[in-house]
Amino acid sequence: MKVGRYLVALAFLWMANPTVAAATATSPEEASKFLDTLASYALNVLRSDQLSLEEREAKVRSLLAENFDLPKIGRFVLGKSWREASEEQQKEYQRLFGDFVTQTYAKRLGGYTGEAFKIVKADAYGKNDALVLTEIARPSGPPLKAGWRVTNGNGGLKILDVVVEGVSMAATQRSEFQAVVKNHGLDGLIEMLRLRVDKFSARGA
Amino acid sequence: MRNQTIYRKSTGKNGLCRGNVSCVARGASLGLAWFAGVFLAVSVLVASLVTAAPALAAATFEAGWQAYQRGDFGGALASWTPLAEQGDARAQFNIGVMYDEGRGVAQDRGKAMDWWEKAAESGNPHAKHNLGLAYLTGDGVQQNYDLAVSWLGEAAGQGLIRSQYSLGKIYGAGLGNISQDDELSFIWISMAAKSGFDKAQYNLGKMYRDGLGVSKDPAASAKWFLAAAEQGYPKAQRNIGVRYLRGEGVPRDEKAALMWLTLAANKGVSGAAKQRDAAAAKLSKADRAAVAAMVEAWRPRRAN
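ok -> structure tokens follow
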């Protein structure tokens, strides 16, 4: 009985593991290089005084969309509801999830004006992925420690998760979304995502 | 003005100073003039401070906005916080956004709600809209559909298109204890559509097509699908393409149908590719080439 339950939990973890489909192992060195290139491109955009905040954020959004494995993250975050969803729901959810994630992170990064970003080290993560540990200096307080889980997917290297101060962003999102699905169903979650990207942002005079 | 009058009066007295009484009067009058002068200076100073305060507030708000645009969210918060505490609704709204989005501060949706409540009480429509959505989704607050609808209704009444659209969608579907009401949905969606919002125009096209909250009207349906399609809304492009293909609400026009269906299919709208091929099959090679050129030259038209 106990063993059975354990096996079920294990099977669930295996199914929920977003790296299962990745075929090739990701080299930590390659992952570091990938992240370094990405960071210097992002810093160029964020430091630009030729671009408005809105334009900088739009560029960061497309950068995130290209370099995060959003479809895989979206499926992971939804958990078992993904398989229960209709094709149309899946399509709409993925579209909104991509908007939601890139918008959320672009807004947070919009105020990052080029404090030092340092790659500390990189290591293998699980069987197929690599984890690149970075430190981001802050105007005050100790540097922010962020780990980037990089996977070798179909379209080359992609970021699968960001672990900030030991907390996985994907896992956090997953528990938040699953609570919404539990109370309001998948359509409720889709509607929530739609409404969240519909709020007004800060305004000038 | 007052100073001059008093001054003239006192010089007048000066000329009449012949006796003690007059001279005492003159001294008193000079004293009065001095007092009045000081009084005036002080009142001018106070008045200029009062009129300068809004100018100063505007400059501080602008300084905050400049900092925000640079990505210096700490600087923006420093400029806006004193204004917000004095009741400036725009500063209150923007600080609410910073907490909601986690810009330069740790994300705190509860604090965002507090600032938006303050701004909304001063009538700020954008704060009302965001409060409405927060109550709808239960972000940073206990979900409350009645409050959501009432804040969105206020913002919609003040003319915010997004609030009108959101209300239209809520009434169209029914949500929690808010029951479905097609007539109300139609009213709000058509308001947003008439203001040029492409998603609302598309929805209005569907309402006229299906007779939701209004009598069926194929011509009106086609008109609104076309309006959204011209702005580049892909699902509306598929719908207007189908109207042209079947001649529903518009004269049948296979070339127009092929153009819109091609645009929709290029955007990956489901079912559009199949209908595009159906339209193409009805046209000659020359017509198809002409349509290909139309697709090439087509550009979205932005309403607002």
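Chain A has one domain: 22-196.
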